[in-house]
From TrEMBL, chain A:
GO MF term (any one): unfolded protein binding
InterPro entries from the UniProt entry: Vma22/CCDC115 (IPR040357)
Identification of the protein by name: Vacuolar ATPase assembly protein VMA22
Domain of life, source organism: Eukaryota
GO BP terms in the entry: vacuolar proton-transporting V-type ATPase complex assembly
Automatic annotation (TrEMBL), chain B:
Keywords: Endoplasmic reticulum, Membrane, Transmembrane, Transmembrane helix
Protein name in the entry: Transmembrane protein 199
Taxonomic lineage: Eukaryota, Metazoa, Ecdysozoa, Arthropoda, Hexapoda
Membrane topology: Multi-pass membrane protein
GO cellular component term, pick one: endoplasmic reticulum membrane
Compartments where located: Endoplasmic reticulum membrane
InterPro entries: ATPase_Vma12 (IPR021013)
Provenance organism: Drosophila madeirensis
Transmembrane segments: 216-240, 246-269
Compositional bias annotation for Basic residues: 90-99
Length: 157, 308
């Protein structure tokens, strides 16, 4: 009897903690998405600025991106599984021309303008934020499923 | 309508009547109350005893709670997942229906109805406070309620994007720019059909050479003044002061040339930047008023037919 009561108490506290955790996760996730939106928007603006400054619409354009027939190259940035099974990480590789890791900036010009460089860093941040957001979302889904399970077990008692 | 950025990222909870009544019933036992909760109770028509201390939000600790995973797994070991979602959603629906307030309609058609302003809401800090207080009260044996029992009848308001109508000024400007773009494309397309359109100023060689000339002159000026500065340092000082050693003369010349180069560099950069602006200007002018331009152009053509 006492053990059961203790169990119920523990379950209740756990459920409370999970709800609070859920609220935390929601807030963090929202904040993360807001940051992502900001980084993406400023990156896009910087890109537009580059095109405006370089003049003409052919300066920084899709036509400079390699197509299917171009030489092969390796990705500089990969999504990998973190040690914790449920999370993802971003892995970045150094630029290394000999081994096929090319610098994408150099497709557009040998001396890329400052705004283009800034745009690149912004979009890099975006990728990090996307990974972070994914991790948070996974945690949130986990917590939600745990909450529903725990509620059932609490209701049963 | 455009979605704007989420400004307030906080999670909000609209307290249910049960929660408010609970707060009212147990108010004697609260030692401290967060500012927001105090305000909320005042707005809802409840009073707080005078002895209660009102604390600022910043003073409360908010940390993500640690979850005992092993205990969680043990407790949930005998639970089947399948039946839960349906049961839960209907349970929620019932609650919403029972409440019969704005929340249900908002859930159903989010786009049609702009989200209502919630005045009295609980934030995360308040929930942390409530949780801590409840733990304390359970310890003291005052009540036997849990946070989840209190908040399950309340509505959760998630942070949402604010819908903003598009600024009409911006819309007009976009429209104008689009029209200009189309116009320019059309002119480009019909350039070699309509003879009158053939000679835009920036197409003629004279125009390009002229603008090139300006820049070349600016650069030449720079070179000449630096050379003159060196000559002055090399010969001029020598003539004035008397015979100087050769090395010192070169040094003097280089110093004077450097000073002049620095000053000149500044003006050169400024000038070249201005030329860029001037070069861009006719393009912009042409977008806004292509027709008058064309007439002016024909005038130019009449004056200098040999331009091309």
């Amino acid at each position: 009897m006492v053990a059961e009561k203790l169990d119920k108490e523990a379950a209740g506290q756990l459920l409370d903690a999970m709800y609070l955790d859920m609220f935390h996760l929601i807030e963090e996730h929202t904040q993360c998405r807001v940051n992502l939106e900001r980084a993406n928007a400023s990156g896009a603006i910087l890109l537009a600025r580059t095109r405006f400054q370089a003049g003409g619409c052919n300066s920084v354009s899709k036509a400079q991106i390699p197509t299917e027939n171009s030489a092969e190259f390796n990705a500089l940035c990969r999504v990998i599984k973190a040690k914790d099974e449920n999370e993802v990480n971003i892995e970045r590789h150094e630029v290394d021309k000999a081994n096929g890791y090319v610098e994408p900036l150099h497709w557009f010009s040998v001396l890329p303008p400052m705004s283009l460089r800034h745009a690149v860093t912004k979009f890099r941040d975006c990728i990090e934020l996307v990974a972070e957001s994914t991790n948070l979302q996974r945690q949130l889904t986990d917590v939600l499923s745990w909450i529903s399970k725990l509620r059932q077990s609490v209701l049963k008692q | 309508m455009l979605k704007s950025t989420i400004i307030d990222t906080r999670v909000r909870l609209v307290p249910s009547v049960t929660l408010l009544e609970f707060l009212d019933a147990k108010k004697e036992h609260f030692e401290k109350v967060p500012e927001n909760v105090a305000k909320l109770m005042k707005n809802e028509g409840y009073t707080l005893p005078l002895s209660t201390q009102i604390v600022k939000e910043q003073e409360l600790s908010i940390k993500r709670p640690n979850i005992d995973q092993s205990l969680l797994r043990r407790l949930c070991a005998d639970v089947h997942v399948e039946a839960e979602p349906a049961a839960k959603s209907t349970g929620k629906k019932n609650k919403k229906a029972a409440k019969g307030k704005q929340s249900s309609s908002e859930e159903v058609n989010e786009d049609a109805e702009p989200p209502k302003e919630y005045k009295n809401v609980l934030y995360l800090t308040d929930m942390h406070w409530l949780n801590d207080t409840l733990i304390q009260m359970r310890k003291d044996g005052i009540c036997n309620l849990f946070l989840f029992e209190l908040i399950e009848s309340s509505d959760l308001v998630l942070p949402e994007n604010e819908m903003k109508p598009r600024n009409p000024e911006l819309e007009a400007r976009c429209e104008r720019l689009r029209a200009e773009q189309h116009n320019r494309e059309y002119h480009k397309m019909t350039k070699n059909v309509d003879a009158g359109l053939k000679h835009y100023p920036e197409d003629t060689i004279a125009y390009q050479i002229k603008s090139l000339n300006k820049q070349i002159i600016a650069v030449l000026q720079f070179v000449f003044s630096v050379a003159a500065g060196f000559t002055f340092g090399f010969f001029g000082v020598n003539l004035m002061v008397g015979p100087l050693p050769f090395g010192f003369r070169i040094l003097l010349g280089v110093i004077v040339a450097l000073i002049i180069a620095l000053a000149e560099m500044y003006f050169l950069a400024k000038k070249l930047h201005e030329y860029d602006e001037v070069l861009d200007a006719p393009k912009r002018m042409q977008q806004t008023a292509p027709k008058p331009h064309r007439e002016a152009q024909s005038g130019v053509q009449a004056l200098k037919p040999h331009a091309d």
